[in-house]
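Usage

Read records sequentially. Each one opens with the input sequence:
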Amino acid sequence: MLTLTQALYDQIVAHARKDHPDEACGVVAGPVGSGRPERFIPMLNAARSPTFYEFDSGDLLKLYRDMDDRDEEPVVIYHSHTATEAYPSRTDVTYANEPGAHYVLVSTADTDGAGDFQFRSFRIVEGEITEEAVKIVDAY
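and closes with the structure output:
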């Protein structure tokens, strides 16, 4: 299960809506080994595409160095889908290289008649996708 503060949830959703119609992407870092997402880090979608996201390699290197300096790791890796449901694509699975991370997908498209967005979390390990519950809390 992914436990996330309301503030982090709101920041992820706001980023997805702000970057629409392009896909938004980013990371929520937390202390190494804690599994607790704490620091919201919106990233630039270097692809600037409504159907694909890509972290800029230079930005990604800076991010990992910064997380190392802070004794952090990526707890949540998020991105948005602008025209499809919030479910990992084949490309998403291919690029999922953090087996300990929660992969959050926000859809900014009305794909299920329930409104213009979905927020879902997955574990992706060795190509296997497992959806997990999301619990929103006021604070940890």
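Summary fields computed downstream for this record:
- The two ends are 14 Å apart (CA to CA).
- The helical segments are 6-19, 57-69, 90-95.
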